Amino acid sequence: MRIVHVAAELAPIAKVGGLADVLLGLSRALSEKKHDVEIILPKYDCLDLKAIENLQVAVHDLPTFFAGKSHHNTIWQGRVGGIKTTFIESHDLNNFFARKTIYGAPDDPARFSYFCRAALEYLLKCRQKIDILHLHDWHTAMVALLYQDLYQPQGLKCSKVMFTIHNLAYEGVCKREILTQAGLSTRRFELIKDENQPRSINLLKCGIVCADTITTVSPNYAKEILDPKENGFLNKVVTRWKKKFIGVLNGIDYTYWNPENDPHLPFHYSANNVSQALKIKKKLKAHLRQTLSLADEECPIVCAITRLVPQKGPELIKQAIFRTLEKGGQFVLLGSALDPKTHEEFYKLKRKLAGSDHVHLELTYNEPLSHLVYAASDLFLVPSIFEPCGLTPMVAMRYGTIPLVRKTGGLIDIIRDEENGFAFGPPTTEGIYSALDRALGCWFNHPQKWKRIVETGMQQDWSWNQPAEEYLKIYHENSVAVTEFS
Ligand code: ADP
After folding, report:
1. Residues 147, 434: Cα–Cα separation, whole Å
2. Residue of 370, 394, 401 to test ligand 1 pocket, by largest number of atoms within 8 Å of CB
3. Does pTM surpass 0.90?
4. Structurally, what CATH architecture does the domain formed by 274-461 represent?
5. Is 19 helix (H, G, I), strand (E, B) or coil?
6. Would you place residue 233 in the very low, low, confident or very high pLDDT band (cuts 50, 70, 90)?
7. How far apart are CA 64 and CA 286, in angstroms?
8. Where are the alpha helices (DSSP H) in 399-462?
9. Which residues line ligand 1 (CB under 6 A)?
10. Which of 108, 223, 326, 451 is exposed most, by the fewest CB atoms within 10 A?
11. What per-residue confidence (pLDDT) applies to 183?
12. CATH code for residues 2-251+466-476
């Protein structure tokens, strides 16, 4: 099968969160199963070029129409993690992909709509039939409508358009002019209109309405967003198209996340010998303590590695920091705040805790450090308010670190309380305290039980192998929904 992913992120060269991991992991798993996979990405000026092999110009000048004008693009190609990756470098006057950041610009909807058109322009030029055109989140959802209205009529052939919702909370609501700037007809406005802001369009809705099949990143998240008790206009849209929805639990890339040879770790270990793994983890713990100037003491390290956004339960993380210290543990937070207010709030906390050698708050995005924190910690905290999948607890388990999660979304699919982790229900102080107390109590008083939980998590298969099979099954199935809207 020829499978083309169009996306805004790809690990490790353009990563903000789990979307990047999914693109790398799923593509590699499909490619290992002998499918022809290509990823199309903007050529951001902040790409980590070191991780791209053989990067070279494929098309010197590809014109794209946007906002009433033709713009020049250079198309680059290279390999990321062995996967053919095509980059669109735009020479538009707004410097759409030269913002030193992947997201966060006020004109993000225009930037990504431009990218959608340019990606299709490139695919049209390739003149190769596509079996699956796989789109991810609102950034690339417009491809589905552009394909229908503008590119299929020009001869671009694609058997199925798939849309994966990695997070329903990011909708891509924007002014209606984006539609016409991308070259679509104003008669499409009604189709993708945002009902809360009736003069705006909703790009996530565009993906839901126009794609043939939709996946969400875990079965339980699919169930949650289809629950009629959920309010909000998108719930109505999701319910209207519910036959298109399937939940597939994400995996993690077992080559990228591998404690047996992780280049960011000074010592390595394997799930085949958990006693040995726990001994090595002690050495890694000492190394982490030295790196972060934490006291060298016989006590558990609790950690969280996360974007600091309301979804991830930042208040619960703060409460967990203090509770862990009270109970005699140490806490490491590697957290990236996307807005200055949250950054300042956590920076204040960091200053307040500066005198303690039992806590370290690293308020940045740091991929190499994240690998060491996963490996050297004992307990990994994911107190999300909602969570479409949650890749971090899977990575933690692979590294022999026990997750402590809130029972929501994909975390319900992943964690079974006291079997491969600890879980709590209500997002309250009592909720997180009770789970944290149980987990720390287990570390201090029941080492055999602790080891059993580590072993269960480490030996479960969290790889992309099974999820990729499920995706292939979906790719092969006939589309459930007909494009009633055209
Ligand atoms: P989301 O996609 O909602 O951010 P996931 O749990 O699915 O959450 O994936 C998060 C990914 O981003 C993981 O690979 C995690 O290790 C990584 N990550 C999150 N925050 C940081 C950070 N501050 N530094 C390094 N890696 C991070």
Report:
1. 51
2. 370
3. yes
4. 3-Layer(aba) Sandwich (3.40)
5. helix
6. confident
7. 54
8. 409-414, 429-445, 447-459
9. 17-19, 21, 305-307, 334-336, 365-367, 370, 389-392
10. 326
11. 97
12. 3.40.50.2000
